Each structure stands twice: as structure tokens, then as C-alpha cells.
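Protein: Glycosyltransferase family 2 protein
Species: Thermomonas carbonis
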Amino acid sequence: MSASIHGQSPQLSVVVPVHNEEDNVAPLIGEITKALRGHIAFEIVYVDDTSRDATLQRLRELQASVPELRVIRHLSNAGQSTAVRNGVKAARASWIATLDGDGQNDPADIPKLLAQRDAAAAEIKLFAGWRVNRQDSGSKRWASKWANAIRARMLRDDTPDTGCGIKLFERDAFLDLPYFDHMHRYLPALMQRAGWKTVSVPVNHRHRTAGVSKYNNLNRAIVGIRDLRGVAWLIVRSRRTAVEEMVFESKTP
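Structure follows.
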């Protein structure tokens, strides 16, 4: 199903991974369409990671009234990074905006990211949201601050907030990155490893109003230590070089 302005192909794909977010689906989609309709040709790609509630049903119902909406369903639970990657692979636009499905990211910030992109140099391929005024619990904010400090020290990615779900990036650059579970938390470092530049953009952050968080501080810490070591290894082992195509003219007899 095509989403466009006057029949254009989408210029932006908004990818939203979800798992058990039945009460957040309709409000968030309404905010996305309000922020983007009339401004850019776009599509919305929801990736349902085997929700056990009515999330998929709500999405199917919304497709009747939201022509921009596409729905992809995982056949087995695979996690947020895989959901983002599958959404990006299915996307038809050359640029991707991502949002968490819990409604804490504000779709009204997407035009701000697009404006930053339009004014930026071509080598900047990722515009990462930066939650300057986080609305999470005190323990979660403390854990995030601690984790960001360790990550910045190890990876030197010059990014104050890699866990923010709202991001804007070039599709081809993303699909060229090494894929692994939880990679969505390390996109700035991975983009920089690939030779691109990244920018952090202050964005709004909101309280969760429905549903429950899928993470806690302990499971984030356990996987985070292992992932940090892996990303650091990837950076150390990275090798890049510019290339040029050689064209040799054949001599005419």
C-alpha cells in the first residue's frame, strides 16, 4: 500500500518496532501522520515482534484508515534490533526515521531531524535523538547515565545518548553495518566505524502512559557489557579505504 503526496513514492520510511503495545499503537500513528502529512511523502512500517496482546489486531484495523501504514509480523520473537533491521529492509524510502513503540518519543521531532539533515554535509548519515530532559524513573536515568559514560569511554563515539529510539539515518548506510542483537544501541559508533559522521539532536521525551517497559536495569547491564566488548573489537579490527574505478580505453588499431 503506497503512502505519498500526490502519488509520489515515499521519501521517508518511519520504522516502529513493537511488542505488546496495544494501547500505544493508535495514538502514536495519529501523531506520526499529523507531523508528516502534507510535508513529505512517507510510509509507516510497523514491525510486530510476536505481540501476545491486541497489537496486531489494532494495526490491521488502522490500515483501513491510514493508507501510509504497512505491517510486518515476526513469526518468532527476535528482539528490537532485528525488528528495526527487518523494518528497514522492507522500507522503500532512502531515509529512515525510527521511533520506539511505547510513545515516549515525540513524532513532532521528526521534521526537526529532517531539517538538520537538509542543512548538513553529505557525510553525516545519522541524526540521533538526544533526550536532554528524560521522563524515566530515577533508577533508569541513573543506570543510563552510568552506561553512557562507560560506553563513551570505551567507544569514543562522542554521543551523549545512544539509547534514544528516535533516529534518522540513510537506509543504505544502515544496511551496510554489521548486524548483531542489540546493535540499535550502538548505531553512532557503528556508523563512525564505517567512515560516516553522526550528529546528536536534542529531542522531546515523554512519560510512558500505557503498557510496561520490556527492559530492566539488570538485563540491560548484562547484555551491555558483552556488547560493548564486541563493538570495541569491531572498531579495533576495522579497515577502511577510499576506492576508485579504473577505466582503461582500448587502443584503436
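Remarks: The longest helix spans residues 217-236.
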